[in-house]
Amino acid sequence: MNQAETAAREHHLAFYRWLAAGWSRFWFKPALGFNLGVSRFVFFALISWFYYDRYSGDALAMWALVPDQFWEPVSYFRALPFLPTHSYEALSAIALAWHLALFLSCVGLFTRYSTKVAAVLGLIYLGYPHNFGKIHHSDHMVTVVLCILAWSRCGDYFSLDQHIKALRGKGSLAPIASAEYRWPLRFIQTILMLSYFEAGYSKLTNSGLEWVFSDNIVNLLMAWGVPRGVYVATHFPMLCRIMGGWTLIAQLMSLTALFSWRAACIFVPALFFFHVGSRLTMGDAVAFTALMMCYTFWIPWEWIWKKTVKLRQ
Amino acid sequence: MTSARKTILNLFFLLGIGISILDMLSKREDFPFAPYSMYSGIYRSEANGKPAYETLVIVFVTPEGGELESQNRFIYPFDNLRLMLSLEKATNDPALLRSRLIGALHINQRISARNSSVPRSIGIRLYRQKATSERKVPQQTGKLADAMLIAEYLPAKEAAK
Questions:
Q1: ipTM topping 0.85
Q2: C-alpha closest to that of A196 among A254, A119, A151, A236
Q3: In this structure, are residues A184 and A154 in contact, taking their beta carbons and an 8 Å threshold?
Q4: Chain A from 7 to 26: CB within 8 A of any B CB
């Protein structure tokens, strides 16, 4: 091997080392558990309320009464023929157990087990209705978040488990920094931002810039027919193009929020308010309320807590 | 954190990111991952500036012979979009379409028996309609305008035959 080849090899090795160090720092840089603990509490509280409110009673079990000819299994349901499909009692039991697991995960009791139960049953509860005709996209992110939290140690802080451990003298209430408290937040943030990038990519590849610069948004709002949206489309067609353009920019730039705090301050609220705007102009059908609840993992709870304490002093 | 756990987590990250990217590039759905391509198409307008697109419309036939456009609460736990797509997928298979129409009517009749605010129906029709922002919404006594009938299921009519 000559000198030039050795130098090139060293150069490549240095690049891979830099990449590996960056990857490791991104996922595993030690963090305190406060952010993850509070996010867990808020997220489970919100989705417990949302799904109980939305699907209270026998909502899941009602699918068991839908005739078999509508059943079109998707994704992992194709590989799970043993699922208790079309059993009213089984689906009722799953719904009840899921809501109980959500509550326990929220208060942080038996969190290691309750989050796993919430994830497994969530895959059934949230996925089941998608096997009938159409996959709606509002539950996807919640399902992913449940699976990520099931693998995490999100119950170490801001939980009953933590207090019970401290009372028994087996743990401490004092915060300890660990990589275990960084990666779940990072992973959820990554998948969330990736979903917006995918949406932007789809718009660009399916329609190109015509998606922004044509009458597309005006026509969309007119077609949906929500009075507020129709008013905006009729009176402010240019605003529709500007909002469409900003949506596309925010979606395509969403991944930068993972690497830059400044970008996160711009694009994360922009994407959140994109949902607010969609709901106002297009109605409940595009609410994505459950997805919006996943933004809790972007909130810097520790920073807010410190600021609040400072203000009180 | 042990190195074994770190390795498993790295694989977990790669799996999540990998499926997301794969779905994005291949435009396929792998719940709970998706390409999120909703509303990525262009809504075209007609010459007069009103949007036009074809849509399926499900209507229930009332005992008086009128038509009532389906609403989410008529077909719970289905919603209109789910049921519409479910029927649309069956339009090339008359037997499947018929069985799904029968199923949809049974769902509606079960709901109306439980809930007095849901009108009673004696049949179901599926139309294809060119929709605009001024699409005529049928009243309980009216008939759906400017629409092409694709299929219907009227048990009383079939029994009379």
A1: yes
A2: A254
A3: yes
A4: 23
pTM across the whole model:
0.89
- The answer for A 33-52 residues in CB contact with B (under 8 A) is none
SS3 at position A124: helix
Instruction: Write out the DSSP string of B128-147.
Output: EEEE-TTPPPPPTTS--SSE
SS3 (DSSP) at B149? strand
Shortest CA distance from B28: residue in chain A:
A75
Please report the residues numbered 135 through 154 in chain A whose beta carbons come closer than 8 angstroms to any beta carbon of chain B: 135-137, 139-141, 143-144, 147-148, 151
Our measurement of the distance from residue A92's CA atom to the centroid of its chain's CA atoms, rounded to an integer in Å, reads 26
Q: Nearest residue on chain B to A126, judged by CA atoms?
A: B32
CB A149 within 8 A of CB A40: yes
Please state which of the ranges A63-77, A196-210, B96-110 shows the lowest mean pLDDT. A63-77
Considering only CA atoms, which of B57, B73, B78 is closest in space to residue B143? B57
pLDDT at B102: 93
Residue type, B157: K
| Pair B123, B60: CB distance under 8 Å | yes
**Given an 8 Å threshold on Cβ–Cβ distance, is B31 in contact with A75?**
yes
Beta bridge partners of B38: none
CA–CA dist A67, A85 (Å, integer): 11
- Per-residue pLDDT tens over the stretch A196-254: 999 999 999 999 999 999 888 988 888 777 889 989 998 999 999 999 999 999 999 99
Per CB-CB distance under 8 Å, the chain B contacts of A151 are: 9, 12
